[in-house]
Amino acid sequence: MGDILAHESELLGLVKEYLDFAEFEDTLKTFSKECKIKGKPLSKSACGSLRDSKSSIIQKDLLAAFDSGDQKVFFDLWEGHIPSSIRAGDSLAQKLEFYLHIHFAIYLLKHSTGRPDKEELDERISYFKTYLETKGAALSQTTEFLPFYALPFVPNPMVHPSFKELFQDPWTPELKLKLEKFLALIFKASNTPKLLTLYKENGQTNKEVLQQLHQQLVEAERRSMTYLKRYNKIQADYHNLIGVTAELVDSLEATVSGKMITPEYLQSVCVRLFSNQMRQSLARSVDFTRPGTASTMLRASLAPVKLKDVPLLPSLDYEKLKKDLILGSDRLKAFLLQALRWRLTTSHPGEQRETVLQAYISNDLLDCHSHSQRSVLQLLHSKSEVVRQYMARLVNAFASLAEGRRYLAQSTKVLRMLEERLKEEDKDVITRENILGALQKFSLRLSHPRRPLQTAMIQDGLIFWLIDVLEEPDCLSDYTLEYSVALLMNLCLRSTGKNMCAKVAGLVLKVLSDLLGHENREIQPYVNGALYSILSIPSIREEARAMGMEDILCCFIKEGNAEMIRQIEFIIKQLHSEELLDGVPESDDDEDEDDEEDHDTMEADLDKDELIQPQLGELSGEKLLTTEYLGIMTNTGKVRRKGAAGVQWGGPEPLCRPITPGGHRTGYPVLEDHPISPQMAKHARNSCLPSLPNAHRPVCKGVMPGPEPCTSSSYDPVAPDCILNGCCNHL
């Protein structure tokens, strides 16, 4: 209470100043009267009084200079106290200033009793002429002011019909009235009461700070999820490393009895496998001459390193979700699509992500099985660019997961909509990228159930569309370029795809040969794979020979690296092959194929360049889902299929598998002699890849011999075991 009394006079003064500024006259009288009755000190704000006094003096000085014709004083005050932003940007201020210059230019002509002083008149006319050539030039195209640009050059403007109005009695008083109103408006705006200034400064600043903090919190949460995923992956890799090391140590210990290596050397090797904190104690306490000691200790070291349990995400009300996705506002639809995508992309690989995806599928989130005219899938054709893009991102996220691809591939309905959107979308690059990414992932497998989708893509003329797009590769983003070439190569592995290319053999060969020299070196394996595959058709080989394809390829042999040279040599051999006939039969497409191709690879690109950000107090992401759409037991257990993500890869693998660029963004080890995806190529440049022998590898007829299978337990199962080094002609 004491603090209030100490500042009461100042606070009441601020209130009075604001009421006066806002012209609450009756309220101000009542307020002043009540303060007087209660004996409250009521003083006018010192700052307000000072501002009012100063403004009043400036206005009086400007009007006095106007009346006396003192041009220099007036325009010094005008430029010193009228904000430059108003003088340069406000049309009313610009027009008024133009007429004020005319007023001072002709002042002597109107107010001199005799002949005006020629020198002073010439000086005023010269000043006006300079203004017209500089600041006044902006109005030279305005019909209202155009005649006045001739004023400095007219000998006697008083008798000129164009300037007759300027010398009539009402003109000067009307101009002065306009000036007074303008000054009153300007200085009132600049005399903002202190109470309003305090509110604006603190209120707006706090709002901006809160918004920034909110955005930072959202980003921090996303980064936290990313780091946690990396941490869990490192822990898993650590477990794998220790397990493998234990096996190696068992083998090394077996040699101790044969005196092949000394126990001391074995001890030093094993100790180096442990963390710095463990080395010293192990070196002192473990007897490495006893069989099994080291491997037992290695396996025991796994006990304290446990992966953190990851809880399942809350269940959702999918009926309400789908209803709002169809009937809600475009902004709500965009936030829901974003939140549902984030559930997939930020969830932990394993049970958490599998449960999320299974809930989406079991509740038919995308309405893939719906026959209604209004479905979630129809958002691909929304009028809103943001909604279209976010729907495409969500479909691409589904396609990045094995079970998601199976869900989308159950009919050609989704494929047709994606193809339609792909060919129509010319505004949003990211929308097209995500649709192209999803289609490319549909082309991964040659066996049931996605074989009909590949066939449909080929029959729908997607190869022709890809060739048309790839004619101008420099106009494409890296993502679009890489996925377009990868999709083209995967479709060219099919017999129908090769025969389709034969219809425009010259164009296909020209596009692929041009792409060989493209600056994006990540697409080379796909280009090589497509070339090798289509050259199994005799008519395409003939066209290639006629256009001098061998000479083109030889140019790249001179410039390429060892792997590129090796691949091109195989293409040249295929160019000279005479084995297959035109019109490859389709029956060979029906051969059974391994069902172990499906692994999950979630791309970082799915969440890049978000278009929408929540405003202060607006829900988004997981908070939106769990606050507005919390459900009961919609999460269901995932039924694992044979050959899903837990498959161990070993021994000889099929030589022909389509691939996806996204399958290698995580940087798995790759085979040196394999054509690789963009992400594999980037990783390969930073890795030491062993040169693997070509012997003892099953090879299909007419296929380039491939290397031994990769022995790394981290081999990426989404990638083909071989493309160039195994593009089977029976496909």
UniProtKB/TrEMBL annotation:
Cited SUPFAM superfamilies: ARM repeat
Stretch list, region Disordered: 581-607
Occurrences of domain ARMC9 CTLH-like (ranges): 57-188
Record keywords, A-Z: Cell projection, Cilium biogenesis/degradation, Cytoplasm, Cytoskeleton
Gene3D superfamilies the UniProt entry points to: Leucine-rich Repeat Variant
Subcellular location: Cytoplasm, Cytoskeleton, Cilium basal body; Cytoplasm, Cytoskeleton, Microtubule organizing center, Centrosome, Centriole
GO BP terms, alphabetized: cilium assembly
Compositionally biased intervals (Acidic residues): 585-607
Domain spans labelled LisH: 457-575
Recorded GO CC terms: centriole; ciliary basal body; ciliary tip
Name assigned to this protein: LisH domain-containing protein ARMC9
Source organism per UniProt: Delphinapterus leucas (Beluga whale)
Taxonomic classification: Eukaryota, Metazoa, Chordata, Craniata, Vertebrata
Gene: ARMC9
